[in-house]
Amino acid sequence: MPENVYTRLRKHHAKKDVIELQTYFDTESTVLGFVHQVNDEFVSIIEVDEDGSYDGVIVFRWDTIFFIRSCNSELELITRLSLERGEVNSIKKLNITSFQNAIADINKTVGYVVLYLERLEKKYCYVAEVLEMGEFILLSEYTLLDEPMRSEILVRMSDVTRVGYGGKYEEDLLKQFQDK
């Protein structure tokens, strides 16, 4: 079978090695991590940073990937460091049959979700608790302006390009609310 994005993701899922990839929606940054799950439409990536530390989980449509980098000495070192830390070994599998199912599963499991809206001229990222979901998602967003505060935001489900949880930024943000 010829290599394509789907077969490559399945290969790296089986190998349990770190890859670097980029999507059409975010051409300014790359995703570094392990392929945690992959199906006919979606992929779940356990993100790690350059020293192999866990940095959250993201889910997105794999057909938005335009490159995958793998099999170089830097990525092999990150794989080894991350596996030695053991942080990525206990990450729960998600229902990634749709964005709606992934969002509901994440929100139920950790109490919040990170939603990315990248199809628009400006990119948006919300760390929020999901209040209602259908064609639109009603969120109770966590924000830091002068102080921690919450606000409700309504976004269209079809504008969501990625969902996630557990990253360092959002965990630090949530601590601000717990300390309040």
Q: N-to-C SSE series?
A: HEEEEEHHEEEEEH
CATH class of the largest domain: Mainly Beta
Number of domains: 2
Contiguous runs where pLDDT drops below 50 for at least 5 residues = none
CATH topology grouping of the largest domain? SH3 type barrels
In one word, what is the shape? globular
List how many beta strands DSSP finds. 10
SS content category: alpha+beta
Task: Classify the oligomer.
Answer: single chain
- Based on CA atoms alone, the radius of gyration comes out at 16 Å
The count of helical stretches stands at 4
CATH architecture of the largest domain: Roll
Strand proportion: 35-45%
CA distance, first residue to last residue: 55 Å
Overall pLDDT level: 92
Strand order of the largest sheet: 5-1-2-3-4-10-6-7-8-9
Largest sheet: 10 strands, antiparallel
Describe the structure.
The chain has 180 residues and is an alpha+beta fold. The chain folds into two domains: 1-91, SH3 type barrels, CATH 2.30.30.100; 98-180, SH3 type barrels, CATH 2.30.30. It is 27% helix and 42% strand. It contains four helices and ten strands. A hairpin with a 2-residue loop joins β1 (18-23) and β2.
Descriptive terms for the model:
single chain, 180 residues, alpha+beta, SH3 type barrels, 10-stranded antiparallel β-sheet
In summary, what is this structure?
By secondary structure, this protein is an alpha+beta fold. Helix content is 27%, strand content 42%.
Task: Give the secondary structure arrangement, pairings included.
Elements: H1 5-15, E1 18-23, E2 26-38, E3 42-48, E4 54-61, E5 65-69, H2 73-85, H3 99-110, E6 113-117, E7 124-133, E8 136-144, E9 148-156, E10 162-165, H4 168-179
Antiparallel strand pairs: 1-2, 1-5, 2-3, 3-4, 4-10, 6-7, 6-10, 7-8, 8-9
